Amino acid sequence: MDLSPLPCDSAFMEYAITLIQKKVAKDVEKALLTTLASNRCSSTLYPHQEVRNRQLSICSF
């Protein structure tokens, strides 16, 4: 069994799950999938979200 690490940090994954649950626009969903596929998904790349006390706060945009 291959136990490769996920290409994303946990904050980004929480953010992605929240977007999916909110049923975002198709272009946002496509951008999210492209980011996941490119292995460049880190919460530090997204300045509109803040990580505090190990909890993710997502700002509206």
TrEMBL record:
GO biological process, one term: response to auxin
Family designation: Belongs to the ARG7 family.
Protein's UniProt name: AUXIN-RESPONSIVE FAMILY PROTEIN
Organism: Salix purpurea (Purple osier willow)
